Amino acid sequence: MSADDALAEAPKPSAVRVFLRRFLLALLFAAPSIGSWVSSNVIYLRIDELERPLKKEAETRRVEMSDLERFVAQFQANELGRGTLNLLMTALAADMQLRYLGDNLHRANAASIGSLRRAAAIVYPDRWQAILKPYEEIIAQGYDSPDAVQRLQAFENKVIADALSTITRDQARLNELTAGIERYERWRGFIASTLAYLAVALSIGLFVFRLHVKPA
């Protein structure tokens, strides 16, 4: 038997073996990309878990700030209207009982339209009902003395001041939360780009290695 005959009779690799070899080779080249995808998704899930409470608190702060800002604007506008009415009644020398009645109506309107209860619930979350009760009782019963007017005005001034202070604190906290969320987003972008570059580098390395390895 000649050498040519021996080569001709050498067993050929089966189609299954050829397919498996090519499949494993393709899987090897795809492994860096697959690993990058899996790693990035695992890391993204972890970052999302860390971000979620920050985003939730930030949204709550924004809603509360919006409510307080609207309350302050409406309440102060109503106070301006009440002051204008008092000046008009004084100029007309109106009866004192009529002046107190007009004052009472404006304060009752401010307590409802100005969302005083909502503002008090935000500013004094644990005791707003107890704090608001004396104020509402005086308005509901009516009043006809300067002392009652002074007490109501002092309470309103305190609520407005506390609301403005709460808005300032919420804004400062919102800035901190926004900075924290942006920091996580920067980490997300850095990790994504790093893993992508590593996947490309490993793929190129495997390709070069394959070129320099002679098939068996």
List its salient traits.
mainly alpha, 216 residues
Topology (SSEs and partners):
Layout: H1 3-8, H2 15-91, H3 96-113, H4 116-123, H5 128-141, H6 146-211
Helix pairs in contact: 2-3, 2-4, 2-6, 4-5, 4-6
What does this molecule look like?
Helix content is 88%, strand content 0%. With 216 residues, it is mainly α.
Poorly predicted spans = 6-10
The Cα radius of gyration reads 37 Å
The number of helical elements comes to: 6
What amount of the residues lies in strands? under 5%
For the record, give the distance between the C-alpha atoms at the N and C termini, rounded to a whole number.
Answer: 25 Å
Mean pLDDT, all residues: 77
Shape descriptor reads: rod-shaped
Determine the structural class based on helices, strands and strand pairing.
mainly alpha
Tell me how many strands there are. 0
Helix proportion range:
over 70%
The main pleated sheet reads as:
none
Query: What series of H and E elements makes up the topology?
Result: HHHHHH
Structure summarized in a few sentences:
The chain is an all-alpha fold and 216 residues long.
